[in-house]
Write a structure and sequence with these properties.
Strand content: 5-15%
Shape: globular
Helix content: 40-55%
Strand order of the largest sheet: 1-2
Radius of gyration: 19 Å
Structural class: mainly alpha
Number of domains: 1
Largest sheet: 2 strands, antiparallel
Distance between the termini: 37 Å
């Protein structure tokens, strides 16, 4: 597939809304009320400011405290709520977005991130290290690039329900031997698990960002390049063809010719292998775009048929920019 990455969007990421009507915490559980009468619990109170502009759904850009101790405390509460199967599914979009923005902010601030890590219990420290390592690999990919002043011609759409995506990853694993965690990580970093409906500068398309020429290769693309199920199965077959069963790094290099990219995907895959419940947070990540105007949030409903100046977009949607 070559170097046709979607730009500075994440991912994660991984990413990045009012997305999906069904939430999930682990491969075999959901956050909906079950037949045993389990009631949903309310998640932690997230930082808020009534003066901040809000999106159409009433949410504002997540706030990250300045104090490392406060960040650590907030992060612990958010991580615990995301893995708790009793957390109300209505809370999950905000929790996932809060988690994502914390890691995006800390990834660019080495000093603060180190202070936060020392204040986390060992379990959450290791989780945070995975997130930060992955995000910093993506930052390294674009370290020498100028931040664009134009926002992309994308449409941001709700992804498939979480349980469906997980079933697609597992089906592809069963058919090819490629770990489902790797496929989930790819789906995250390529299009935020299908939120980005757009074409890259190299003409890569669909939720797994296939070049049409690659899709047409015998034994790779079957069905619709824009269909999540079909694209995930094709991605697994492509990784096999590129040597992924012998060395997944080699397979991922074929997907994107960057060591930084490969390392980032494997960090997210390792996070999921260590605790599949981490998929809940990743599923609820929003789409962010690192522009010259800052780290902009492009929510579900963003729809541009051609690139638009970030400054113009912000005049219409000031909630896209952090405080």
């Amino acid at each position: 597939m070559g170097k046709r990455h979607l730009a500075l969007m994440l991912i994660s990421v991984g990413v990045l809304s009012v997305i999906g009507s069904v939430a999930f915490n682990a491969p075999s559980t959901t956050n909906e009320l079950d037949s045993k009468g389990k009631t949903a619990s309310k998640g932690p109170t997230l930082p808020s400011d009534p003066e901040l502009p809000v999106m159409a759904d009433g949410r504002h850009y997540p706030i990250v405290p300045a104090d490392p101790g406060e960040i650590a405390s907030l992060l612990i509460d958010v991580e615990k709520a995301l893995e708790d199967s009793s957390t109300s599914k209505a809370e999950l979009p905000s929790l996932g977005h809060q988690q994502q923005v914390i890691y995006r902010v800390l990834s660019k601030d080495i000093k603060t991130s180190e202070q936060v890590l020392t204040k986390l219990p060992e379990r959450w420290r290791q989780v945070a290290k995975r997130h930060l390592a992955a995000r910093r690999e993506f930052l390294s990919m674009h370290r020498n690039s100028n931040r664009p002043h134009l926002l992309p011609a994308w449409r941001i759409i709700p992804p498939e329900p979480g349980e469906k995506l997980l079933s697609y990853y597992r089906k592809a694993e069963a058919a090819t031997g490629i770990d489902w965690e790797v496929l989930a990580a790819l789906n995250l970093v390529e299009t935020g698990m299908g939120r980005i409906d757009g074409v890259s500068v190299a003409n890569a398309q669909g939720p797994m960002q296939f070049l049409p020429s690659t899709w047409r290769e015998h034994g790779i693309g079957e069905g619709d390049i824009r269909d999540p199920h079909d694209a995930i199965q094709a991605a697994a077959r492509y990784l096999v063809r590129r040597g992924g069963l012998q060395d997944i790094r080699k397979g991922l290099w074929g997907y994107n010719n960057s060591d930084h990219y490969v390392k980032a995907v494997l960090e997210y895959a390792a996070l999921l292998k260590e605790d599949p419940r981490a998929l809940t947070g990743l599923y609820y990540w929003e789409i962010h775009f690192a522009s010259e105007m800052g780290d902009l949030w492009l929510p579900v409903g963003y729809n541009q048929s051609k690139p638009i100046p970030a400054s113009s977009y912000l005049k219409q949607f000031p909630a896209s920019k952090p405080k």
